[in-house]
Amino acid sequence: MPDHRLLKSLLIKLIAYYWVLLIIGLYLEQISNTLWVGSLVIILINLKEFVEVVNWIWHSPHKRQVKNNSYWGYIYRGIDKSLKANRKRRKSLIAALSQFREGADALPDGIVVFNQDNAILWCNHAARQFLGLKWPRDRGQLLNNLVRHQEFRQYIIRGDFSQILELPSPHHAGVLLEHRVTSYGSDLFVLMSRDITVLNQLESMRRKFVADVSHELKTPLTVLHGYLELIDDSDNIEPLMWKKAMSAMKVQTNRMQSMVEQLLALSKLETTAQANASAISVDELMALIKDDASAIIGERAITINFNLMPNLQLVGNEEQMLSACSNLVTNAIRYSPDSSTIDVGWHKVDGGVEFSVRDNGLGIAEHHLNRLTERFYRVDQSRSTQTGGTGLGLSIVKHVLLNHQSHLVITSEVDQGSRFSFVIGDDLITQP
Predict the structure, then answer these.
(1) Which residue among 8, 258, 366, 422 sits deepest, i.e. has the most Cβ atoms within 10 Å of its Cβ?
(2) What is the DSSP annotation of 85-99?
(3) CA max distance for the chain
(4) Residue 432: partners with Cβ closer than 8 Å, 6 or more residues away
(5) Quick one: pLDDT at residue 70?
(6) What is the pLDDT of residues 327-370, one digit of tens each?
């Protein structure tokens, strides 16, 4: 940047210039006219330079002007330096704005910026998806005119944004949106639209779960309370009645204990992935299930056949896999009539080995199949109560299989029996 030396140099040259004019004037004996003409020349030259500077600034500031022999060169270089700095700052601001918009576009929540007249200034990708907006076509359009939902329009027009608005998406069926509006600056607002469909479903599931647990515990507690009142109010209870009461209370407490244990097991499965993976001997696993199956069958005339692959070993959580297989076998026994046959086996299939349980019992109607793994879902409430089922067994099986990269396959026909199966992939098989 030029300093006081520039002014000193300019004054020296100006004085020298006028000394030359004075000498010429003395020589011509026209001192006054010579000084006037010389001054006019300086003025005209600088006016020409001034016009060139103005034209350069207005028409071609991007072209560099170099005038090393003129004091106007300092002006050109100064303006050029300022223009370069401004262009650099502008590029930096454009890059920052672009990054901001890219970041806002990547947000899962819809963002719409609008002014006090409800005119849209900007919206991100999620807002366009949720609300059906078009960008940049909808720039400057009224937000309350573009989102065709009466309650939403009233919400925007009213301008009272103290409450959160929950409405279905006007652009996607089945999507529930939560709308919040925040003001900033003097007359600007930000609309944030969040997809709360999953949260709403989880809340509905939570309420249903609490209702189901309450319903399931109500019956055994009612039975226990009734017998306890009978015992408390009766001084002399006949041994037969006492035995019946104790037997009924034991059945109900066992049922509640089983339900609580299964709920705890299910909760553990839902919150933790596969843990303590180790080699599982299928022969040893099925030996435990055989013993449990024999105890459950008891005196009933049910035949159960085990067809196993020899020396089969898997990698997984042994406790979880035992629970899944045992639940499927136990269910088949509980819901099979006397004089029926159950086939349990491991078989080689494409991509892995399959565990299957087939019975020739009552079967299940097709409209029930997709809901069998829901907690507390039962095809026949009375039949499940009689057999001691809690409606949690298949839910446990479902989550165990998720932890072992598999899923439950159910096929059934009414009066023809049912088949429950799953496949363990080759990557989890160590032998054979």
Answers:
(1) 422
(2) HHHHHHHHHHHHHHH
(3) 155
(4) 309, 310, 311, 312
(5) 64
(6) 899 888 888 888 889 999 999 999 899 999 999 888 888 888 88
CATH number of 278-431: 3.30.565.10
Angle at 251 between CA 249 and CA 255, to 5 degrees: 115
Q: What residue segments make up the domains of the chain, in order of their start?
A: 4-95, 107-195, 205-271, 278-431
- Please report the sign of the dihedral spanned by the C-alpha atoms of residue 325, residue 291, residue 412, residue 350: positive
Complete DSSP assignment for 60-118 = -TTS----TTSTHHHHHHHHHHHHHHHHHHHHHHHHHHHHHHHHHHH-SSEEEEEETT-
pLDDT tens-digit map of 9-59: 778 888 887 888 788 888 887 888 888 888 888 888 888 878 877 787 777
Host H or E run for residue 239 = helix 239-271
pLDDT above 80 for 385: no
CA distance 399 to 403: 6
Q: How many CA atoms lie within 13 A of 80 on its CB side?
A: 16
User: Looking at the domain covering 107-195, what would its CATH class be?
Assistant: alpha beta
The pLDDT of residue 285 is above 70: yes
Q: What is the CATH number of domain 205-271?
A: 1.10.287.130
Q: 91-119 pLDDT, tens per residue?
A: 888 777 777 777 777 788 888 889 888 89
- Cα dihedral sign for 359, 361, 365, 371? negative
Q: Do 200 and 168 meet the contact criterion of CB atoms below 8 Å apart? A: no
Across residues 228-253, what is the average pLDDT? Answer: 74
- At residue 349, what is the residue type? V
SS3 349: strand
Token pair 């300022």 in the structure block, residue: 82
- Whether residue 144 contacts residue 157, with contact meaning beta carbons closer than 8 Å, is answered with yes
Residues 6+ apart with CB under 8 A from 174: 168, 197
